[in-house]
Fold this protein.
Amino acid sequence: MKLAREVVLSASPLQVWTVLWDVPRMVACVPGCVDARELEPGRRWEARMTQRVGPFTLSLPLLVEAQEVEAPRRLALTATGRDPIAAASVSMRVGLELVPADAGTRLTVDADARVLGKLGALGHGVIQRKAEESLEEFLTRLRRAVEG
């Protein structure tokens, strides 16, 4: 499943970057993220995501790793996790690109995710809708965090 969005934020790339690297502020922006902690500064984190998708409620422990970091322009992350109760596993790659724009920063989000197990059997349409809703909510929360 692929997702892509572009939004202009009324803040400089450095201001947006600062929020992206502030773990508590970032947790507040990610829908369903109930906890996160840094394992290796600027490189690896553990997080817990709780989401309801169709008839399933997932509680996924995730390992998040920075794959590409080019401050304050580009960030690529991978995240993998498995919920043994719901028999579902998720792997994703998320790319964020920040480009100066007249009104602040143009943020491009490009994500690719795979969902396996019982949740994957739910159907691409249901999972895609939930992912799109979550991405829109993330962008709304990020806008609030960077624009005040």
Notes: The chain has a mean pLDDT of 91.
